[in-house]
Design goal:
The protein has about 350 residues and is an alpha+beta fold. The strands form 6 sheets. It has a 6-stranded mixed beta sheet, with no helix packed on it. Strands 15-22-21-17-18 form a 5-stranded mixed beta sheet. The longest helix is centred in the last third of the chain and has 43 residues.
Length: about 350
């Protein structure tokens, strides 16, 4: 008896469970399935239309639905954040511009190293190229040298905004216009002009000096048109280097920057005569001739000698002209006598 009662109770529960499922399915069909979004709706006693989405929010959700909604919410928040960042980047964007003035002139002496600066602010992903304009030769791209001439190279320090073109052992043919170009759209450029000069030594005063024994000789040598200091300045008397000939009474003093050098002999002797040459390490040399001898004023003797030589030259010219006139007269007279005969 008890077994039959339990069986009937179980069967009744099963039927009730099936009935509840059928009722739920029927309700979803009537009010509109939210996953199908078929647009069906039900009418309540207050004549208010309730669509499937409203019922869907009331009905209990599965774990899958909760996870899906959480994922959508997270993606939406990320999208909003990225959009805000993009707007902030747009507002904070600063365009690229050059810090080096266009048409800058750089002067370098022969044999030195030239540095052509190109300062670029906010370059971003841009790439810097150097171009020699006279033949449109591509020299460097970034830090890579594309020229077969190894004297050219680009220098750039990390976190620096300077992209400098370096030219070693500069020659006169290197003078001209150079272009610093950035790979923007379209490309942006500035131009720099390289002037190449020849540094020279110059001994101040006349090229010939006349002195009497015991007088003081002072020679001042300066370097002109140089863009960098010399490593040394040597003095030569004929073929002998005399910077350290203290025993001969020669004293040489040179400035620390090697732009000037002075040679002094306080008591000159005949052996001090000769050619004196100032030779810098990176400039053309200069020379003077020094003559030391006894007698009258050497300068006056020099000018008298030049004056007498000039007069002798004039006398020779007059004599030659007179001889030509006499020969011409004799020739004409001879021509006339022959005609008369």
């Amino acid at each position: 008896m008890k077994r039959g009662t339990m069986f009937e109770t179980t069967r009744a529960n099963g039927v009730l469970r099936i009935f509840n499922h059928l009722l739920r399915i029927s309700t979803l069909i009537i009010i509109g399935c939210p996953t199908m979004n078929n647009g069906l709706s039900s009418i309540h006693s207050d004549s208010t239309f309730i669509n499937g989405k409203d019922i869907y929010q009331i009905l209990p959700r599965t774990n899958m639905e909760r996870k899906s909604n959480n994922l959508l919410t997270h993606e939406k928040e990320n999208f909003v954040t990225e959009t805000d960042d993009m707007q902030e980047n747009i507002y904070n964007y600063t365009p690229m511009y050059f810090g080096t003035v266009n048409s800058t002139v750089v002067a370098t002496q022969i044999g030195a190293t030239a540095h052509l600066p190109c300062i670029i602010h906010h370059i971003g992903d841009g790439v810097v190229s150097w171009i020699r304009r006279k033949d449109y030769h591509l020299l460097t791209v970034g830090l890579t040298t594309y020229s077969s001439d190894e004297r050219y190279s680009a220098t750039h320090l990390i976190h620096s905004e300077d992209w400098t073109l370096q030219i070693k052992f500069v020659q006169l043919r290197d003078a001209g216009l150079y272009e610093c170009q950035v790979s923007t759209h379209p490309p942006t450029s500035i131009f720099l002009h390289l002037n190449v000069v020849e540094a020279k030594a110059e001994i101040i005063g006349p090229s010939i000096r006349y002195l009497t024994p015991g007088s003081t000789l002072k020679l001042m040598c300066r370097i002109t048109q140089n863009t960098e200091s010399s490593a040394f300045i040597f003095w030569y008397n004929d073929n002998r280097m005399i910077n350290y000939d203290f025993d001969r009474g020669i004293n040489v003093s040179t400035e620390a920057d090697y732009h000037y050098s002075e040679l002094t002999i306080h008591r000159t002797r005949k052996e001090h005569s000769g050619n004196y040459t100032c030779v810098p390490s990176n400039a053309q040399p200069a020379s003077v001739l020094v003559q030391i001898f006894k007698g009258d004023n050497p300068a006056a003797m020099y000018h008298d000698h030049r004056g007498s030589a000039h007069k002798s030259y004039q006398n020779n010219i007059l004599t030659s002209i007179t001889a030509l006139l006499v020969a011409l007269v004799y020739t004409l007279n001879g021509f006339n006598i022959e005609r008369i005969i």
